[in-house]
Design goal:
Layout: E1 2-3, E2 10-11, H1 34-37, H2 42-86, E3 89-90, E4 94-97, E5 108-116, E6 121-128, E7 137-138, E8 141-146, E9 159-160, E10 165-170, E11 187-192, H3 200-210, H4 220-256, E12 260-270, H5 271-277, H6 282-292, E13 294-309, E14 316-326, E15 337-342, E16 348-349, E17 360-361, E18 368-372
Length: 373
């Protein structure tokens, strides 16, 4: 059996041309028997198919690699752009707080509200110090910064939280490693509050924010106590000063009206007790009945010169007084420190035995109560 050397088609030995591919078989000496070639020409055709398939697979692999590389590069660019858009930028900001110490004060809370560049809501509290605002770092977006509370201090110092609210917009085109300088020329000032003016609400609000900061663990309660104790002491001192000023104002008004003003403590005692205090036998001086009676009087804080009518009522005199007898209507102030005002013509020196117990008699016209401590 013979085969065409061109296409491997089986041909008869006497054929001049191949009936399949048209090859001239007579002019070719290449026509051989399958047995003499030892191989069928058909495998050569199959070998060509394998080569084509291999080439196709290689092309597909190369194309896949190229597409993969392009996609990877695209993803890398997208990731870089995403990272750049979402990179956090330090917000440059100056804070001034007189008396603030890193060693004895909690950090200052800053409320951040708004939206990031993706439209996600942002509502968080950032804690900073006047010399370190590095934790105030935000991704691109629009925000409002506010300052909701004072820091707390171990010494009880308290600051007024500013009412400032700052709206900022961080553009996505800002380089990733670049700080936002929109507030660079802004100083947020915390002014120290007079301790007497601090309220529990202000302290409790500061404590609420301070408790959210892990840096303040274990110190908040102690700082709150120190603040309130300092406030209470200052409030008491301020109240005392205000009372002293009001008292002096009333004394001055009484003095300007022509009154004499004396201060001391009101007492209600028997004549016997008063005489005993003055080393006087009251029974001998004013009789047993007078000694048993109760009297209202003021014991002056110090020996005081009192201008009054003379005992005979005929003229004026000055008496160095320590005890002044008062009308019974002032018995309600027994044991209290008090300031009294009276006119010289309303009080008298004693011209009888009662002068053994009292220096001045002010029982006829009740003195004016100027101040009761």
């Amino acid at each position: 059996m013979m085969y065409c050397p061109g296409c491997g088609n089986e041909v008869v030995q006497s054929a001049r041309f191949c009936g399949v591919c048209g090859r001239d078989l007579q002019s070719e000496a290449a026509v051989v028997e399958q047995q003499s070639r030892g191989t069928d020409p058909t495998p050569k055709k199959k070998s060509n198919k394998k080569l084509i398939i291999g080439i196709c697979v290689a092309v597909v692999v190369i194309i896949a690699l190229i597409v993969g590389i392009l996609l990877w590069q695209s993803n890398q660019r997208s990731k870089a752009e995403y990272d750049a858009d979402h990179a956090k930028h330090a917000v440059t900001l100056s804070i001034a707080a007189d008396g603030y110490s890193n060693d004895s004060c909690t950090r200052i809370p800053i409320q951040v509200s708004g939206e990031d560049a993706d439209g996600n809501a942002v509502d968080e509290v950032v804690f900073v110090r006047p010399d370190d605002t590095s934790e105030l770092a935000l991704a691109s977006g629009s925000y409002t910064l506010s300052f909701p509370a004072s820091p707390l201090s171990s010494e009880g110092t308290f600051w007024e939280a500013p009412d400032d609210m700052w709206a900022i917009t961080i553009d996505s085109t800002l380089d990733a490693n670049t700080a936002f300088e929109g507030l660079a020329n802004t100083t947020i000032t915390y002014n120290v509050i007079d301790s007497a003016d601090i309220t529990d609400e202000m302290v409790d609000n500061a404590a609420t924010y301070a408790s959210k900061d892990v840096d303040n663990a274990g110190v908040v309660d102690g700082y709150v106590t120190a603040t309130k104790e300092k406030r209470d002491a200052a409030a008491a001192g301020k109240a005392s000063q205000q009372q002293a000023a009001e008292k002096q104002s009333k004394i001055d008004a009484a003095t300007q009206s022509g009154m004499q003003v004396v201060s001391g403590t009101i007492h209600v005692d028997t004549g016997t007790s008063i005489g005993s205090a003055k080393n006087v036998d009251a029974v001998t001086a004013i009789g047993s009945g007078g000694a048993a009676m109760s009297y209202v009087y003021i014991s002056l804080d110090q020996q005081t010169s009192v201008s009054c009518m003379s005992g005979d009522g005929l003229g004026m005199t000055t008496i160095s007084a320590q005890l002044i007898q008062l009308p019974d209507t002032l018995a309600q102030y027994d044991g209290q420190s008090i300031c009294l005002g009276f006119y010289a013509t309303d009080v008298f020196g004693y011209s009888d035995a009662m002068g053994a117990l009292f220096d001045v008699n002010a029982t006829y016209v009740a003195p004016e109560v100027i101040w009761v401590n």
